[in-house]
Known about the structure:
By secondary structure, the chain is mainly α. The chain has one domain.
Amino acid sequence: MKKFAIYMLAALLVLVFRSVVLMFLWDWFVTEVFHVSPISFLQVLGLNLVLSIFTRKNISENTKDALTKTQNELDELESQVVMLISSEFLSLVATLVFGFVIHVLGG
């Protein structure tokens, strides 16, 4: 149960960080191009949640089977979850850095 709480906290932190990245990218690029007002963090968070509903991936049968396997296989699945959260975070960092460079060079 403790590991589940840690994973949920990590997922929440990724969601918050994804919203911050989206907010910066919106303010840097969308406001100027489309002449719209900047967006607040809570608006981005809500937009992020709405968009996640439409882009959510379904759990495949293979994943469901993996969840019912032995503890050794669950440990392997745990490392995959950690890698997934880490790769999502690093992808967001790279997006933010790349967007910042474009913002600085273009503006």
